[in-house]
């Protein structure tokens, strides 16, 4: 059981280091399998978001010598969901949780992509100038 858990952790770490690779693998693989490029793009975004959240959390913790990275990301996603739910309730009078979760998850992809790029540049610069 320990070997399986370690293998999963190493595979996740390997895929999360460069999240463009799993995105492209899922996009082209699912696109070729189903023929639906739009659905393949959405699925690739959803899969890559999981990897980006973990990677951005680790980068944040490493750069700022903190342990708040994952908690901060979850807090931002929950606050965004609450704000979006409030807007939806005021406009429609009801809340569609599935739509809110999907919207926050997809917005999280773009937000985590930007944070990944910024934090990766800071991390590379920090390690380059520390030598």
UniProtKB/TrEMBL annotation:
* Bilayer-crossing regions: 12-33, 45-64, 70-87, 107-129
Q: Does the keyword Ligase apply?
A: no
Keyword Membrane assigned to the entry: answer is yes
Name recorded for this polypeptide: DUF3397 domain-containing protein
Q: Which InterPro entries match?
A: DUF3397
* Keywords carried by this UniProt record: Membrane, Transmembrane, Transmembrane helix
Q: Pfam families per the record?
A: DUF3397
Domain of life, per lineage = Bacteria
Which species is this UniProt entry from? Paenibacillus spongiae
